[in-house]
Write a structure and sequence with these properties.
This protein is globular. A hairpin with a 2-residue loop joins strand 7 and strand 8 (295-297). Helix content is 52%, strand content 12%. It has helices spanning 12-16, 19-28, 45-53, 61-65, 67-70, 80-93, 96-119, 126-143, 150-165, 171-197, 203-207, 219-234, 237-250, 254-260, 264-275, 307-310, 355-372, 410-421; strands spanning 3-6, 30-34, 39-42, 57-58, 123-125, 281-286, 290-292, 295-297, 302-306, 374-378, 386-387, 393-394, 398-402. Bound molecules: (3S,6S)-3,6-bis(2-methylpropyl)piperazine-2,5-dione.
């Protein structure tokens, strides 16, 4: 039998560490309700999985959470043929053949360039010296957007992300977010218009519809789609990378294991996404009266899928608080023998379309980090802090390592020079 409990997402303890709340939720088999906001917070794996696959739970909350800063609807708000066609188009742009030929060298270059100034110092903050710039530069690279003022773009991204993911923005903060959105829209719009007139071999030209003339998207629609990709690709990337390194450093022997067998990077990423999901919440609106785990939920209420909690459901993930590189091999089987994967990428028809891409991207970068930063150690681990209710990640991750003057990097450099000459 399930019960209801009050939860304040404004509780500062929840913000810095939601995991004890999730544990209590699973132990007591309950759903949290935020009375003031008519919001229900669901954290059981099977409930969340069912909600994400059900059309009774709509993506309407994005009309208020995202549309105002996107300038138009995001993909997750669409349905039917329109959704299928646009999703397919974007997925084609992120496909593996492009990855190997175009994206992989771009990601390698960005990673090397951002790490370079730190290699001889033997010290780097993986979040603030590397991750934030890295995440936005790679996304700009995918979209073919100019990178000269990428620090401005990173700031505008932050403002827009705050609008989507913060629950208690003041009017002033809202205005700031909307200003950031205007800046991004006026950066992207002329590029869309120019690609429309003179198509090139890039992502935006593809969205402009020469490959798919039937779609015939308007300039604001394409711009919103670019913003959608900018947000969805940037926001979780640096967080996932830093949290993976943190887990590998905290778990005895884990880092060496992965450094010595790079096939395990994929397992480390998947386990990081499960244990510390960079996106913790997915909002839905219920279109009729329903019951979840015995709790009646009235039509029109908001239901937040706590994917960060579902990913620690002990019925699906034994010893859920443990970082376990072997977990993928031992996943619990669900219906029809299907393995129950973590829900960090969501589920159902709106499941993250960048999932495969993001794993390839982070694999490329993790490989370079392991080659470049030998004997990584965490500085002052007791100060490590993750924050965020909706998207969540470390405030910083300061690493010390053996400076490159003491490590032979010739192989890497020679390869790069050869690649540049080619
Ligand atoms: C951009 C929270 C960054 C998405 C979002 C308004 C729509 C959608 C998500 C993820 C990550 C963001 N929602 N990506 O949760 O595209």
């Amino acid at each position: 039998m399930s019960k209801l409990a009050s939860l304040s997402i404004h509780d500062s303890n929840f913000f810095t560490n939601p995991y004890p709340f999730y544990e209590a939720l699973h132990q007591q088999d309950l759903i949290y309700v935020d009375e003031a906001n008519q919001s229900y917070f669901v954290g059981k794996y099977d409930d969340v999985d069912a909600i994400l696959k059900s059309s009774v739970f709509t993506t309407k909350p994005l009309m208020v959470r995202a549309e105002p800063v996107m300038g138009d609807r995001v993909l997750a708000q669409m349905e039917g043929e329109e959704h299928a066609a646009k999703r397919k188009l974007v997925m084609r742009g992120l496909a593996k053949d492009y990855f190997v030929n175009q994206y992989e060298p771009m990601i390698q270059q960005i990673t090397h360039d951002l790490l370079a100034p730190f290699l001889s110092r033997g010290k780097i903050d993986l979040v603030n010296d590397f991750g934030r710039d890295y995440a936005v530069l790679v996304t700009l690279g995918i979209l073919g957007l100019p990178t000269e003022n990428y620090r401005d773009i990173a700031d505008w991204h932050k403002g827009v992300a705050e609008f989507i993911t913060h629950f208690d923005q003041t009017e002033q903060q809202k205005t700031h977010s909307l200003d950031c959105s205007k800046q991004l829209i006026s950066l992207i719009t002329p590029l869309v218009e120019s690609r429309r007139q003179r198509p090139q071999n890039d992502f935006i030209s593809m969205l402009c519809g020469n490959a798919e003339p039937a779609l015939n998207m308007s300039t604001p629609e394409i711009t919103a789609l670019c913003l959608n990709i900018l947000l969805a690709a940037t926001e979780p990337a640096d967080k996932t990378l830093a949290m993976m390194i943190k887990h590998l450093l905290s778990e005895p022997g884990a880092l060496d294991e992965v450094v010595n067998d790079r096939r395990l990077i994929r397992d480390a990423l998947e386990e990081t996404l499960r244990l510390t999901s960079p996106v913790q919440l997915i909002p839905r609106e219920v279109s009729e009266d329903v019951c979840i785990s015995g709790i009646p939920i009235p039509k029109g209420a908001y239901v937040y899928c706590m994917i960060g909690a579902a990913n620690r459901d002990p019925n699906v993930f034994p010893q859920p608080a443990q970082f376990n590189l072997e977990r993928r091999k031992n996943t619990v089987q669900g219906d029809a023998g299907k393995k129950k994967r973590h829900l960090a990428f969501g589920g159902g028809m709106h499941m993250c379309l960048g999932a495969a891409f993001s794993l390839l991207q982070l694999e490329v970068t993790a490989n370079i980090i392991f080659d470049s930063l030998r004997d990584m150690r965490m500085e002052r681990p007791e100060t490590y802090l993750e924050t965020g209710l909706y998207t969540r990640g470390p405030e910083s991750l300061v690493l010390s390592f053996t400076p490159s003057s003491q490590v032979n990097h010739q192989g890497d450099t020679a390869q790069r020079l050869m690649a540049m000459e080619a």
